[in-house]
Here is the input.
Amino acid sequence: MAELKAEPTAGGRPRPISPHLQIYRPMLTMVMSIVHRITGAALYFGTLLLAWWLISAASGPNAYANVEWFMDTLVGRVVLFGYTWSLLHHTLGGIRHLIWDTLHGLEPADREMLTVATLVGSIALTVVVWVIGYLAMGGPR
Amino acid sequence: MIGQRPNEMRTAARRVRGLGAARSGTKDFWHQRVTSVAGIPLTIALIVIVIALLGRSHAAVVQILGSPLVAIIMLLFILNTAYHMWIGMQEIILDYLHDDKFKFLSLLANTFFCIAVGLASAFAILKISFGV
Here is the structure.
């Protein structure tokens, strides 16, 4: 926070400080707002994976083989799975925010429903994408 | 006061020092929405393209990535994403970093990172595409 120290005013009384996150009970919409940020930041660095993949493909078969090797390791798979979920979660969360931008779905029940739908939807879609991915490759390797 | 415009709440000294609102916040807000709308179909397209390329040989991957439609979609995705993430990370930096030097260096690093990742990826796509 910028300036948590309350400066005394001319009268000697400290200026009022507006309450911030830490005094509120965590709510789903609040937690998911933070998760939207975290997935955004994760995807920020995840673009390095995309860049690495593209540059390797442009460089030639040997460089591309390195990417393929890494993605076949357990760490590579976990990173890729995390990237997939972050991408889908951030996309669905973005759609939710775009709906809210139009002033729709802001009633208590609606916004909870949209928030739960984002979480459940992102997990379900991630599983679907990976199942299709493995089917496309002809089964797990 | 001399040199002060009507309806200007800030003093001349404050204005010269650049304190107060930058008056450009809504531009970033709007551009973040524009790039997020564009990002929805582009993200779906990216996932479809990546799945289609899974397990294929390098030659096949280059062949498909280099075809005009796929290359154009990939270029749109990477450029749209680079701009979207530049705004997003800038927002995070401005929210959480308050030390002026650290904040300035972080904003600088954010700009360099996004341009470098965007340009490197775009160059790779173009090289693959023109090389086919």
User: Anything to note?
Assistant: Chain B is about 80% helix and 0% strand. The helical segments of chain B are 12-16, 25-53, 58-65, 68-96, 100-131. Chain B has one domain: 23-131. The two ends of chain B are 67 Å apart (CA to CA).
